[in-house]
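To whoever picks this up:

The nightly regression suite flagged Metallo-beta-lactamase domain-containing protein as changed. Nothing in the input moved, so I suspect the structure step. Input below, exactly as stored in the fixture:
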Amino acid sequence: MSDLRTLSAHTAYLPGSVNVGIVFNDAGQAVLIDSGGDKHHGRTLRKALDAAGLRPIAIINTHSHADHYGGNDYLCRQFAVPVWAPRFEEAILRYPLLEPMYLFDGASPPTALRNKWLMAKPSPVDHVYDPAEEPLLEIGEMRLQVHDVSGHAVVQAAIGAENVCFAADAFFGTEVLNKYEIPFTHNVARQIEALERLRSLPYDIFVPGHGTPTEDIERAVQENRAAIERAITWVRDAVGDGATTDEVVHAVTARLENPPTTLSTYVLMRATIAAYLAHLTEQGTIAPEVVRGVLRWVPQ
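Regenerated output under the current build:
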């Protein structure tokens, strides 16, 4: 089936830096689960669909990170397909500046952060759905299960069809964990909850947003939990007897095999470490302390 990898009778995916899921029917209609990072990914997807005799009738975005909806603009112009996006996340699809802005502490981001990795082209949003309230989406003749796996993003959905779960960034493949060591997260506690939820879902194949699909979700969850627990330890150790956010970031990134080397990778890592600082604060392990205009994190 062209460059598409078949998963079950009516599901497939296009592998890449971001995996795009496809659910289709016997009439050749296809629902896309995310769209990749840019028009090039969108063009590759279009060619793969053409070769397979499939025509997209909708895009379901799982969350609003630019690498997951960057192909929307191209595909919507090519096929005039409607877009489904989760609540809250839909605002970023429509106003992409919000992503680099929140990563840059809410300020107007410099040009170096206004790139395709953090700021995709705006996407139309035709339908807003709530993964926590809407367990089923019916598009055309296809019924897709919706599962709330928020944590990596403020709101994030996993989409199920037949025996396949397109899990978005609820978990990462082994090769991705090895490369990045501390994958991006928004809310550590909810990311852990999402991993536990994956364990209970009735699917045989789980497709991550990044990495290789797996039939062993138990092992995948264990690997992702181990990465989270390691990050918690690194951040707690970096706080020590007290440290500023920048000192914690420096101490943690010094332990990485591939530390940030660009402004984009730095702000992503800084935001992730901030999520761990917030998590430790909510657990009562550390607390923020502001003295003479300096924010420090101190043990409790």
